[in-house]
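Notes to self after the Tuesday call (sharing in case useful).
The group wants a holo model before anyone commits to mutagenesis around the pocket. I volunteered. Ligand is uridine-diphosphate-N-acetylglucosamine. Logging inputs and output together so the record is complete.
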Amino acid sequence: MLKILNIVGARPNFMKIAPIVRELRRREDEFRPLIVHTGQHYDEAMSDSFFRDLGIPAPDYHLEVGSASHAVQTARIMTAFEPVVLEEKPDWVLVVGDVNSTIACALVCAKLGVRVAHVEAGLRSRDRAMPEEINRILTDAISDLLLTTSQDADENLAQEGVAAEKIKFVGNVMIDSLFYNLERSKASKARENLELTGRDYAVLTLHRPSNVDDEAVFGGLLEALEAISERLPIVFPVHPRTRANIEKFGFGERVANSGIRLIEPLGYLDFMNLYSGARLVLTDSGGLQEETTALAIPCLTLRENTERPITIEMGTNQLVGTNPDKIKQAAFGILDNPPVRQAKIPPLWDGRAAERIAAALLAAGG
Ligand code: UD1
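Result:
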């Protein structure tokens, strides 16, 4: 019987941990899974609604660290998590993704000699200005089992000198959640409540510090989005960081006078209901690049790089950066010549990654 502490902290963690915990609980003779929520995200809309939508059991531990600078937040998570590890003495701690909670908990375990499994290992944007890139590199360097979503990730790890026996290509748990919930998301009233019909809208998400903390960059993005929204209305569920900066930079009136419609962040099923019906998605998120690829929805990524190149090579993603003209050109290209929607789903994005993760943990042993 393996005792596994599963860590969640921020919004993009919840849909990754849900299928893993479900699978570990199903195999009750082999695993004893516990859930630790660091509290990096804490709002109803950023956290609680995801537990409900995804059917994640209530956390066994809630560390309630909240928002703070990177150093303070990371330190608070470490300080609060160490006693939990000492008390529970798990066989494995399982961390997902690339948020501050991921590296903080991995580091605690590395120092205590407790084994860490990293789900979504090996992704690299090669942009160290991105806090997530630092979290990815460091977490991989100290993890004992590196569970990857794509073969480019295996190659990245091999290049960094990680021993082949630590790396296991298991596929994408985010897509496990997508396929598991797609049918359920059709019952959501999100689209209907926004009075959207057909594929007559685009969906936008934007929250990277590099895009929304710099007034000139954010202003340039807004210029492109204003122009696109004249042809196709854009629905924009706004992350708290982004909303604060719209106020700070005085962009509220520009947005109000455009075809961009700001709404509150949506829960998992409501957001899926919304983006799955969109003609176009514009985003700087990591996960949405993958979800649009799995559903063959055209996606423009408003960043200069991506740690998920497979979504470009096989999927529907295009990297367009932050130059307003380039963004407009790409968006108008899609609107003028809608691409044929043919899903080319990357290998092992098949809804069964959690099963392979459970098998990999068992094979690695207690
Ligand atoms: C974090 C992750 C990022 C992920 C994003 C998804 C890191 C380094 N970044 O960034 O990878 O894509 O989550 O959302 O871990 N806030 C609230 N309520 C909340 C949470 C945050 O109002 O529940 C506000 C706070 O003012 C906070 C700000 O949002 O200061 C930013 O939150 P933070 O967790 O620091 O980083 P994110 O930008 O959300």
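Two things stood out.
Residues 70-88 form the longest helix (19 residues).
The pocket of uridine-diphosphate-N-acetylglucosamine is lined by residues 10-12, 40-43, 46-47, 67, 99-100, 131-132, 207, 239-241 (CB under 6 Å).
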